[in-house]
Amino acid sequence: MRSAHDWPRAVLFDLDGTLVDSAPDIAASANALLAQHGHAPLPLGEVRSMIGNGVGKLVQRAFAARGTMLVDGGLAAVVEQMMEIYAGRLTNETVPMPGAPAAIRLCRALGAGTGVVTNKPETFSRTIIEAFGWLSDTDVIVGGDTGPARKPAPDMLLFALHRLDVAIGSAVMVGDSPADIEAARAAGVASIAVRGGYTNIPVELLGADIVIDTLDELGFAIQALAGRG
């Protein structure tokens, strides 16, 4: 049975839409890329809805919205261009999501290992985490190019827990999107969904064990989940 005194032993966070609002920088980069190819820019809200499952999917969705289908080698080349553009503005307009700094501190207070599991490239993720002063409190970072199959596959979560030496029953995944919650379910890990992120599906329908409005409520959610064990 779970106990509030020893559960969880690890908290895994998604990055985009969960710990940080990176949509403005991603949208600006995507629009710069579109402009290079003669396309009109997309509204921030539309790009926000395209975020998830990695940079390749974002680029593919953005160009599809402008009537251009990118596949295979053509897609790879444009993704590389996007990576170069975005690398120069990772934290220009990106800000922490409400409650994110407190959530990181809470994990330390609980004595839990802390990980970031994101489909964003690992180097980009590390740069953002470091910019907000969270690197020393983050025990493991697993990015979309780290090696394991990306979310919604369970592999990234299992890889992070292996690195943390924590059993799946002693961990919780905190995210905002279908990929996060599906990955947690596939891994057998408890899940918390946070409103206000990047999902086209109502957060209540993601299938998380519990839903919170902001990361300020993370402590209450953990207590509730510990009591269910």
As residue ranges, the low-confidence spans are none
Question: Could you give the order of the helices and strands?
Answer: EEHHHHEHEHEHEHEEH
- Global shape: elongated
* Rg estimate, integer Å: 17 Å
Overall pLDDT metric: 95
**How many beta strands in the DSSP annotation?**
8
Fraction in beta strands:
5-15%
Report the end-to-end length measured between terminal Cα atoms: 5 Å
Concise structural overview:
By secondary structure, this protein is an alpha/beta fold. It is 43% helix and 13% strand.
Summarize the structure in words:
This protein has 229 residues and is of the alpha/beta class. The chain has 9 helices and 8 strands. It has helices spanning 23-36, 44-48, 55-65, 72-87, 100-110, 122-131, 155-164, 178-187, 218-228, and strands spanning 10-13, 20-21, 95-96, 113-117, 140-142, 171-175, 190-194, 210-212. The mean pLDDT is 95.
